[in-house]
Amino acid sequence: MRGRTEEAVLESGPLPVSMEIKQIDQDGKYDVATLPNDEDIGEEVSKNAFLSKRTEAIMMTAICTALFVSLIFILNFCGFTSAAVLNVWLTDRLGFGMVILGGAIIQGVSFALVCWAPPFGLFVFAMYLNGLGTGLQDAQANGVITRFSNSDAKMQYIHAAYDKSTAAY
């Protein structure tokens, strides 16, 4: 059955159900693969069907888990973005000291919520608070550093410290 020309396939009529055209090689010939009939397979059909359903279930579970877990990082980003939006308004209303202290308190509350392994919803909310507190402190610390002499080198040191602290995670 292998290597039949296009004309030979067309002349023979439609292929039986147990046959399938796999590919055309460079000479224009069809490679026809024979699929086994149900009576030839027996119980292997149900095993293969089960394996494919099991594989599909595993893949869906992995995708859903990845999307679910990514909420931790998404909410942390949302907290940091909220801090970026609120920082100027809060600094005008409350002043530098209260905003940086508030950021530290918010971040401390988030760590207190995370440390006892809460349910996932509360954990994700704590990550939002973590992003909010970190964002408020980051903006205020950058503002302080820019007022020092030789601020460009000091800004490099403070951001290098952020890099070193991520190694702890």
TrEMBL record:
Protein name in the entry: Uncharacterized protein
Species the sequence originates in: Naganishia onofrii
Source superkingdom: Eukaryota
